Amino acid sequence: MTQKNDDIFKLRNLAIEKEQARENVKNDISETKERLRPSNLIQEAKHKAMERVQKTGESALQGVKDNPGKVATVAAAAALLALRKPVTNYLANRTADNDGARNNDAEE
After folding, report:
1. Distances (CA, A) of 60 to 1, 64, 68, 75
2. Cβ proximity of 40 and 34 under 8 Å
3. Which residue, among 35, 56, 53, has the nearest Cα to 44 in the 3D structure?
4. What is the pLDDT of residues 23-63, one digit of tens each?
5. Cβ atoms < 10 Å from Cβ of 71
6. 3-state secondary structure string across 17-76
7. Are 27 and 21 in contact (CB under 8 A)?
8. Residues 94/87, Cβ–Cβ less than 8 Å
9. What is the Cα–Cα distance from 97 to 38, expressed in whole angstroms?
10. pTM score, whole prediction
11. Rounded CA separation 42/18 (Å)
12. DSSP code of 102?
């Protein structure tokens, strides 16, 4: 008789576990469906991108704080590179203006 009671108890526990597993699967499926909606995927992608940008910015800022001399050198080189053509044009125009003024002085 005890063997039969033990079997009934085990079957009852298995039935309870089966129902709990079904509920867990239902919950997991509904959570997965909600997570995989396009609007939620976009929100998650935005959030991850913002976190990456923030981490990159923080590391860059720390690099600037750690190496101010190098940063100043790189910034100056970048500014000179960006302003190369305007500065060249300015100097060329200035030289041409000076040559024209000298020619006018020589003619007078």
Report:
1. 75, 6, 12, 14
2. yes
3. 35
4. 999 999 999 999 889 998 899 999 999 999 999 989 988 98
5. 14
6. HHHHHHHHHHHHHHHHHHHCCHHHHHHHHHHHHHHHHHHHHHHHHHHHHHCHHHHHHHHH
7. no
8. no
9. 64
10. 0.44
11. 36
12. H
Measured distance CA(29)–CA(89) in Å, rounded: 67
Percent over 90 (pLDDT), the chain: 37
What's the CA gap between 57 and 55, in Å, rounded? 5
CA 30 from centroid of its chain's CA atoms: 30
Residue 101 amino acid letter: A
DSSP symbol at 108: -
DSSP label of 85: H
Q: Which two tokens stand for residue 84?
A: 């190369």
* Eight-state DSSP code of residue 83: T
Structure-token match 């003619």, residue found: 107
How far from each other are the two terminal CA atoms of the chain, in whole angstroms? 134
Distance in angstroms (rounded) separating the CA atoms of residues 21 and 34: 20
